[in-house]
Design goal:
The protein has 425 residues and is mainly beta. The protein has 2 domains: 28-155, TolB, N-terminal domain (Rossmann fold); 164-423, 6 Propeller (Neuraminidase), CATH 2.120.10.30. The protein is built from 4 helices and 30 strands. The protein has helices at residues 3-12, 50-69, 88-94, 140-155; strands spanning 35-39, 43-44, 73-76, 99-108, 111-120, 126-135, 164-169, 176-181, 188-189, 197-202, 208-213, 220-225, 230-235, 241-246, 252-257, 264-269, 275-277, 285-290, 296-301, 308-313, 319-321, 327-333, 339-345, 353-358, 364-366, 374-379, 385-390, 397-402, 409-410, 418-423.
Length: 425
């Protein structure tokens, strides 16, 4: 969703209504050589209990998918290979596995458990032994946690299997806030405002989501608490209160406000609600995103004509223009600090696509190439993947791709139109 193209209609919208409707070279997630991990059949804690075996089979399938999705591993499977006991490690080594992951599973009433062991097949040394316990309502989280621990132990990098993606969807007839697991499972609606809700942004700790909503008639800024399942108003200033992004410490939010008529960028402190003006320009400055060190913001401005991506040092106010395309919008600074993803088009008749620009403005890389309209990029916490909105399938859906533009796929088959994803930590 193009923010600048949305802002003018929002300014004219009556109060009572709403529209109907890294780790990266440029190679992305595939940059590092994969290592083979053997995944044995999970052993039920009690073979006499069918629930133990069924839980193990389900957990293994999710864990397998997580390991493959990480792009760090090739998964070797062999139903005839033992998961434990004499000769197990040597058998998997012969099959080509550098590591062997085995597990035991159990389910008792409303509790599911998983005991995971990872062995280096070259030395026979145990690299990870961990026990997980979870309410059966959230059984998938057992596998996600095990996958992330495996990634960290074997690569030294944080995994993302436990993360969530927030987005906006209109299947109810109004645009509401939704959440889904990083793999598209467990999609669910978070708000029921029956009003225009826009631009979700996860807080750095993953506990809150900032968004803009017309639930009170004005485009106000809200904070949704994931633990409580409720939201509170943060800024109800007259005019636009459009979310940009959180500061790295989570104490501030960059916001586009229009209380002074022209939309400009303000830095809102959550503790006291005070808003400090960051830009002052005749025209539109919007879509702010903090740098990982919190010392700069990237944003879009039409000060030079068509909207372009700019970077501003917050301490000095010094501004540098990074792009010179026909149109740019929705910048998102990578957690690694190296790149800024944005929506853009090189020529007036082009469809909107996702691009990268380095922080010097010296290099621009186009990631999508007119497969529908592609907008709203959001980085995974490890800077190796991007979520974005695309119409390539005939309606707006959230897609995920590697940070080099490869392997695009829908996040989930959610009815209606989905847009503006935000990838949580």
């Amino acid at each position: 969703m193009n923010i600048l193209r949305l802002i003018l209609p929002l300014l004219l919208l009556p109060a009572s209504g709403f529209p109907a409707e890294v780790y990266i070279g440029v190679e992305g997630a595939r940059a590092s050589a994969k290592r083979a991990i053997g995944l044995s059949a999970f052993t039920p804690e009690n073979p006499q209990r069918p629930d133990d075996a069924e839980t193990g089979a389900r957990l293994r399938e999710v864990l397998r998918s997580d390991l493959l999705s990480s792009r760090y591993f090739d998964v070797i499977e062999g139903t005839d290979l033992p998961g434990e006991g004499a000769g197990a490690v040597e058998a998997w080594k012969t099959a080509g596995a550098a590591f062997l992951l085995s597990a035991k599973s159990a389910q008792a009433q409303d509790i599911a458990t998983l005991s995971v062991k990872i062995v280096d097949t070259a030395s026979g040394a145990a690299l990870l032994e961990r026990y997980y316990r979870q309410n059966t309502r959230f059984w998938r989280m057992l596998a996600h946690k095990a996958a992330d621990d495996a990634v960290r132990q074997l690569t030294g990098r944080a995994g993302i299997a436990h993360t969530q993606i927030a987005f906006i969807n209109d299947q109810t007839g109004a645009k509401e806030l939704y959440l889904a697991d990083y793999d598209g499972e467990n999609a669910r609606r978070a708000t029921s405002y029956k009003a225009l809700t826009l631009f979700p942004r996860f807080s750095p700790d993953g506990k809150q989501i900032a968004f803009t909503s017309y639930k009170g008639g004005n485009p106000d800024l809200f904070l949704y608490n994931l633990e409580k399942g409720s939201a509170r108003a943060v800024s109800e200033r007259q005019g636009l209160n459009v979310v940009g992004g959180f500061s790295p410490d989570g104490a501030k939010i960059a916001v586009t406000m229009s209380a002074q008529k022209n939309p400009n960028i303000f830095i809102l402190t959550l503790a006291d609600g005070k808003a400090l003006r960051a830009t002052s320009h005749f025209g539109v400055d919007s879509s702010p995103t903090f740098s990982p060190d919190g010392e700069q913001i990237a944003f879009v401005s039409d000060r030079a004509g068509n909207p372009q991506v700019h970077v501003q040092e917050l301490s000095t106010g010094r501004v540098k223009r990074l792009t010179r395309l026909n149109w740019c919008d929705s910048p998102a600074w990578s957690p690694s600090g190296e790149w800024i993803a944005f929506t853009g088009r090189a020529n007036p008749k082009d469809k909107m696509d996702v691009f990268l620009v380095d922080v010097t403005g010296g290099r621009i890389i186009q990631l999508t190439h007119g497969e529908g309209s592609n907008e709203d990029p959001s980085w995974s916490p490890d800077s190796r993947f991007l979520a974005f909105t695309s119409t390539r399938s005939g309606r707006r859906q959230v897609f995920v791709m590697d940070a080099d533009g490869s392997a695009p796929h829908p996040l989930a088959d959610v009815p209606g139109n989905s847009s503006t994803p935000s990838w949580g930590p």
